[in-house]
Amino acid sequence: MTDIASSMLAPEHPVEAIWDAAPLLLTPDLTCPEATDRFASRSGAFHTSACVVDGDGRLLGIVSLRDCLNGSGPIEAVMTTKVPSARRGEAGAERTAYDMIDRGIDIMPVLERDGRVAGVVHAEKANAFLVEELHEDADRWVGIAGGVKDDYFDHTVWSDFRRRVPWVLALAVAGLAAGYVVHIYEDALDALVILALYMPMVADTGGNVGTQSASLVTRALTTGDVKARETLWILWRETRVSLLMAGTLFLFAFLKVLLISNAADVPATMTLEGIGFAIAIALAAQVISATLIGAVLPLVAVAVRQDPAVVSGPALTTIVDLTGLLLYFTITASMLGLAVP
After folding, report:
1. Residues 6+ apart with CB under 8 A from 108
2. Is a pLDDT exceeding 80 seen at residue 145?
3. Beta 49-53 vs 86-87: how paired, if at all?
4. Is residue 272, in this structure, part of any structural domain at all?
5. Which residues form the CBS domain (predicted)?
6. Residue 227, in any domain of the structure
7. Is 87 within the bounds of a domain?
8. Are residues 73 and 167 in the same domain?
9. Number of domains in the chain
10. pLDDT of the residue at 149
11. Do the domain assignments include residue 140?
12. Average pLDDT over residues 272-289
């Protein structure tokens, strides 16, 4: 690599930039039902895999929520012992994220030198990090990063705080609605536990496609490739792209449910094919919705004379999470005949 190319690339981030420093850790003597309760009672983001550690916190293996739901004995009987891991202080965030994609894994333990679990990297965090890094690298190569004047240093700390905090507070309140959606559909989750297993997939996919759409539209606005007045043309283009992605991910989701899920978990009144079809329809709807939301938010920000970087990023996360959960539960509950609030 040339000196010029090297100077344009961002420095490697430490793995701590994308890890969960307080992951769910389970001991091998826990039974599968007890481990399932630990997964359910875990606050914050919902994940479907956890590390199994000994009394000193050293890694023994990985266990998934699906394995726990299918078992009844100790989790050491169903956990996977041969798992890849990253070493703290040696592995960078980008290398770890690419390694997870190459291996197709959902969780990467990060270990201290003595084998103790220091944290874990989840797939959704790794994917979001790589998308952001690729956008930043592309901006450097085309000269955007250094060529567009920003008013960042024109703001005092107080004025910068005042332009950010209203959006953050408003979206924090709006974020409570996402938890309420899960609460009102508790009966549906109790009746069909398999729905909980695919909630992260729907939420993460919505976040990824929404971020892609928002980033591309923001960059196009910044470079002058498109104007805010071309909103209808942008939405028509994004609609066609989202339909193609929705079709692809529909097939992926349907096959994943059909080939990976355990038919023994399906109630007698339903079929695995029917459940897979409902989840795939919900995922396709989320892809279309998130893509259009991601495209609209930068345009709305520009229309109301706000900075798209300040508005669209936080708003996208909250809105896509909320709409994604609503679409997921509404579609699956209606198609599968579950209780609808």
Report:
1. 84, 85, 86, 96, 99, 100, 120, 121, 126
2. no
3. unpaired
4. yes
5. 79-138
6. yes
7. yes
8. no
9. 2
10. 47
11. no
12. 92
* Residue-wise pLDDT tens digits, 78-114: 999 988 999 988 888 888 988 888 888 889 999 999 8
> Tokens representing 89?
């202080």
What's the confidence (pLDDT) of residue 245?
Answer: 92
Sheet holding 25-26, edge to edge: 25-26, 49-53, 59-64
Both 106 and 191 in one domain: the answer is no
For 6-61, how does the pLDDT look when each residue is reduced to its tens digit (9 = 90+)?
333 445 788 888 888 888 999 999 999 999 888 888 776 677 889 999 989 999 99
pLDDT of amino acid 266: 76
Angle at 306 between CA 218 and CA 326, to 5 degrees: 70
Whole domain around residue 37: which residue ranges? Answer: 3-122
